[in-house]
Amino acid sequence: MSDLVIRGARPYGAGEPVDVLVRDGVIVALGAAARGGDEVDGVTIAEDVQVIEAAGRILLPGFVDLHTHLREPGREDTETIESGSAAAALGGYTAVFAMANTDPVADTAVVTDHVWRRGREVGLVDVHPVGAVTVGLAGKQLAEMGTMAAGVGRVRMFSDDGHCVDDPLIMRRALEYAKSLDVLIAQHAEEPRLTRGAVAHEGPTAARLGLAGWPRAAEESIVARDALLARDAGARVHICHASTSGTVELVKWAKAQGISITAEVTPHHLLLDDSRLETYDAVNKVNPPLREASDAEALRRAVADGVIDCIATDHAPHAEQDKCCEFAAARPGMLGLETALSIIVETLVTPGLLDWRGVARVMSENPARIAGLDDQGRPIAVGEPANLTLVDPDTSWTVRAPELASISGNTPFDAMTLPARVVATVLRGRVTAHDGVAATVTQRVRL
Ligand code: DOR
Ligand code: ZN
Questions:
Q1: What global pTM score does this model have?
Q2: Are residues 213 and 93 in the same domain?
Q3: Which residues form the pocket of ligand 1, taking CB atoms under 6 Å from any ligand atom?
Q4: For a FRET experiment, which of 29, 162, 331, 440 has its CA 20 to 30 Å from that of 316?
């Protein structure tokens, strides 16, 4: 592999510009920007070198997404590991966690190992398989978490996402097993007896539009219950896509008790609210639903305060026929990988709630720590693996759904003009995306 030099970027958006020299997937030198020259901090650059000019750009550790739906196996008409990996690389991600609600469900090591292998073959982002907590996501019987954790895919996060592990006894056992295996349970918090038929946030907007409502308590009752179950099991629990101000209060309370709880929020729950439903366009249908403006405000503050640990996209591609239909019949979910950074800038950086150091924390360091990845979310320093994301903070761009790398086009951000953009992504020294173009898929690799 040739050397890679990133010239003149500012790590974490602070301090003086630096040159970064990457060799064999590792940062080998880092020093004051030299504007050319054949060395970085005394280390001679090889003749075979790829240079990325990065003046004015911000260098961050590669992003880690704990919540991605890649739809392979089963719905390759909507996304594949290959197309989703390209979307991830373009969005600045160097690792994603692929949710288990595929067909077949990722509830055995056969499936989770396949997802891992296919991700390695594609080579654009580390695709970590999420294992199902229960067989078939049915909530009745624990899946073989141990064999999935021991497979080549080394599953370290389990979730029935799309469904809630609603039976408290099953959830309790899952937490106990997870503790002994040192893996994480990520809960889609939704009490199903409170959301039967629900398609929108329960509130004035849904009432006026005649849409069946999904009350905040459906989420919050599970968050409270799982915090207590985690406390008693001495286990860790992670809350997927927090969407209400009450969830923020509960997570804050649980952390204050010393409970090992972490939480993520999606870009769409930070930016959008249920006023978007006025048009009945199902591109805005998602689980949990878009809430009220006051919830979005509480979620933004919770990221700034550290109550919510990280941003996760819940990237959920869907076919046109599953979205362009009656609101109640449409599938929930929206794309997220390629727009996440820009929405974080719009909702948190521009208003002054988060600086670039904070962006690194919630997009990279915290998710890597929560999932137990030791090669991601690392400092930008000599000797560290070169998993990096280069951002242009001063640009803006207009989202065009057909131009995204995802096979599907269900983005609520279509035609929106958003600030900042990922310019390049580097995975173990390889440039996986640059100037809006993803690298070609690597050849088949022997594992
Ligand atoms: O909106 C959602 N879509 N929420 C989920 O929990 C699942 C996801 C999907 O798989 O489409
Ligand atoms: Zn979910």
A1: 0.98
A2: yes
A3: 69, 101, 161-162, 188, 286-287, 314, 316, 331-333
A4: 440
